[in-house]
């Protein structure tokens, strides 16, 4: 079983004097009001001290090796599809979305595209919507991130879903009631089953309920239309097609039929289907389009790294701590084709 460990430190409102690191998150009894101390901001390393503490906590101070994760998804894909020469990887994660085409294992720099929309932005937007409409949750990043993962989905027909979300009572089949955790009797929030939802009266005292309708699909829609919240950038399907069009013409059909989705945002229900639908409408009609969603899109790069570690030349591909201390960032540029 793969375990995803947060790359950050935390402080909780109940233990403000203590700092928790990485997998110590499980030791926090009340994660409400959790404060995140992040080494990365918008995908850039801005706090080396925090990153060093995370690495030292997980690996110890002894020497360890660092792999660049960017090409590992492509390595994993080519391992499973050895007859293919090209693929294009969409990595939609915490801070941003990267689109990177690869040919024969090498990234094609002319086609690389970055969209400044990721899971953090979606969570923050959901916090703002809920705080404006129902309950002040601006300090509850941990809780609302869980709400987002539990109830949000990517719409296949935005306007039809919006019309449905405006209906009242039981006619609104998109509406969900989410029970917030109190970290005492309710350790983790959950969606009430449809048959237990109360459309007329109020719930019993002590139960904090969020009623969500259009928020469920309007928040992930930002991945497809960032301009909806004032970010003047392309959505993922348009950026994908634009990236492929920057490739040599004879290679473009191979990229269209080898689109790989990775990162946490790929877990939204309907994400793969929507990407396929929109890319299909934008691609030339005589090109095949295939969009692959791995079983575990978050750990897919790690799986590629695991395969790479079994390569006899693995030691020539990595940068050790000693290498870095002796040569600085130049050794990374040389080894990782930055």
TrEMBL record:
One of its GO terms (cellular component) is nucleus. It comes from the Eukaryota. Keywords: Cytoplasm, Cytoskeleton, Nucleus. It is found in: Cytoplasm, Cytoskeleton; Nucleus. The keyword ATP-binding does not apply. Pfam families: Actin. The keyword Metal-binding does not apply. Belongs to the actin family. ARP6 subfamily. PANTHER family: ACTIN. This is Actin-related protein 6. It comes from Scleropages formosus.
């Amino acid at each position: 079983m793969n375990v995803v460990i947060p790359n950050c430190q935390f402080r909780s409102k109940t233990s403000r004097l203590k700092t928790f690191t990485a997998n110590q998150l499980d030791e926090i009894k009340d994660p409400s009001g959790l404060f995140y101390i992040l080494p990365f901001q918008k995908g850039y390393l801005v706090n080396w001290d925090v990153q060093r503490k995370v690495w030292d906590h997980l690996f110890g101070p002894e020497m360890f090796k660092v792999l660049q994760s960017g090409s590992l998804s492509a390595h994993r894909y080519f391992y499973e599809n050895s007859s293919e020469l090209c693929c294009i990887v969409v990595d939609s994660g915490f801070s941003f979305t990267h689109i990177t085409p690869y040919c024969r294992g090498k990234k094609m720099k002319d086609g690389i595209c970055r969209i400044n929309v990721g899971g953090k932005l979606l969570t923050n937007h959901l916090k703002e919507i809920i705080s404006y409409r129902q309950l002040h949750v601006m300090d509850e990043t941990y809780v609302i991130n869980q709400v987002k993962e539990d109830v949000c989905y990517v719409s296949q027909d935005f306007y039809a879903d919006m019309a449905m979300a405006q209906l009242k009572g039981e006619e609104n089949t998109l509406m969900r009631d989410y029970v917030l955790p109190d970290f005492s009797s309710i350790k983790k929030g959950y969606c009430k089953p449809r048959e237990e939802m109360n459309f007329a009266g109020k719930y019993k005292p002590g139960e904090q309920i969020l009623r969500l309708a259009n928020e469920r699909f309007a928040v992930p829609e930002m991945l497809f239309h960032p301009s909806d919240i004032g970010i003047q950038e392309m959505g993922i399907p348009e950026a994908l097609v634009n990236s492929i069009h920057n490739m040599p013409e004879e290679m473009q059909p191979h990229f269209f039929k080898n689109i790989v989705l990775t990162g946490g945002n790929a877990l939204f229900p309907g994400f793969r289907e929507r990407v396929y639908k929109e890319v299909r409408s934008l691609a030339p009609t005589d090109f095949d389009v295939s969009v692959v969603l791995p079983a575990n899109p978050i750990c897919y790069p790690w799986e590629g790294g695991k395969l790479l570690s079994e390569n006899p030349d693995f030691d020539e591909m990595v940068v050790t701590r000693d290498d870095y201390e002796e040569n600085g960032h130049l050794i990374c540029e040389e080894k990782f084709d930055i």
